[in-house]
Automatic annotation (TrEMBL):
Organism: Pseudomonas poae
Name used for this protein in its record: Alpha-xenorhabdolysin family binary toxin subunit B
Keywords, comma-separated and alphabetical: Coiled coil
InterPro entries (alphabetical): XaxB-like (IPR047760)
Record bears the keyword Coiled coil: yes
Coiled-coil parts of chain: 27-54, 234-261
């Protein structure tokens, strides 16, 4: 086994998925009207937290399990004995001890590996109700209510629909976090500074790179201005909705409640893709553990060969865990 066989996680994807899921499940769930959906969102967040914790513990535990100095001593001692028939009892004793060490390692490693797999499975299969049946029923109810609405009662309905569009636009902007934008600018600015220090022909390249960075700054500022306009538009629209809501008829109140319920089922699907991306990444850790165990215990009855495989591959997996673990729970 080599490092190429151990897939490297994209920690940026993991962190972004965590933030989106946390926002949707903890912040937005407080306004969810359906208790069953609220509980589903909370359970998903709890399952993601559990995966984070289990993998963090596994990344810390596996390097300890891979401390195989004692096993190495027995393997080296066995090889030093050679093929002398008089040494067979000693060889048998060494093979027995090696077998015990391998069994102990396999049991403990399998426990860690299965714990990771189980936690990921819970997060992957946690139910989030798209609930097509409920959405269909709510849509049918809405159609009946709309057929009873007079022309003068429709402004609030239109304003609510506009609000949903603005909220989605705001969500798209905020999901593309300021950190993502800032990192692009920092990378480009660093490149400009590096090139500026080089004499001669590199100055032209530095000037060009500087212009590109300036464009990125202006683009980011322009996006921020558009975002501020969105916020201002939402605030103004909310004030109009509040004024109109104070004069809502019973029919409008029913329509308003219907829209809120439908939107909550729709919004709950916003975490489906982040959950899928998160699970895809964390499975790379589970696969690393499984592939390692399969590679080492290819022929478990051949104790000496298995021990040599473990000794040969231990450092590869140990370094994989040690490189990943310090960054695993960081949000930035």
């Amino acid at each position: 086994m080599n490092t190429d066989e151990l897939q490297v996680l994209d920690l940026g994807v993991v962190r972004k998925a965590r933030v989106i899921i946390r926002n949707e499940t903890l912040i937005n769930s407080s306004n969810v009207l359906y208790e069953s959906l609220r509980q589903e969102l909370k359970q998903l967040n709890a399952s993601i937290d559990e995966v984070d914790l289990v993998i963090n513990n596994a990344l810390a535990a596996v390097p300890v399990l891979l401390d195989v100095d004692e096993l190495r001593e027995y393997v080296n001692g066995l090889e030093d004995m050679g093929a002398d028939s008089d040494r067979q009892p000693a060889r048998d004793s060494y093979l027995q001890e090696i077998g015990k060490l391998l069994d102990s390692f396999s049991v403990r490693f399998t426990k860690v590996r299965e714990g990771v797999n189980a936690a990921i499975f819970v997060a992957e299969t946690a139910v989030i109700s798209g609930n097509d049946y409920m959405l269909s029923a709510l849509q049918a109810e809405r159609s009946v209510l709309l057929s009873q609405v007079s022309p003068e009662e429709k402004p609030l309905i239109r304003m609510k629909e506009q609000m949903a569009v603005i909220d989605q636009a705001i969500k798209v902007y905020t999901d593309n976090s300021d950190l993502d934008k800032a990192l692009v600018l920092v990378d480009n600015a660093t490149s400009v500074l590096d090139k500026a220090e080089v004499p001669g022909g590199m100055k032209a390249a530095a000037i060009k790179a500087g212009a590109e960075t300036a464009k990125l700054v202006l683009k980011t500022l322009n996006e921020a201005i558009k975002f501020e306009h969105l916020i201002a538009a939402r605030k103004s629209l909310q004030e109009s909705i509040d004024r109109r809501a104070n004069r809502m008829t019973s029919l409008e109140q029913q329509l308003d409640a219907n829209q809120k319920k439908s939107q909550q089922f729709i919004d709950s699907q916003n975490i489906v893709e982040p959950r899928r991306a998160y699970v895809y990444q964390v499975k790379k850790v589970a696969d690393a553990f499984s592939n390692f165990h399969s590679a080492v215990f290819l022929k478990p009855k051949d104790v000496q060969a298995t021990a040599k495989l473990l000794l040969a591959d231990a450092d590869t997996l140990k370094k994989y865990c040690q490189n990943l673990q310090p960054y695993w729970l960081r949000d930035v």
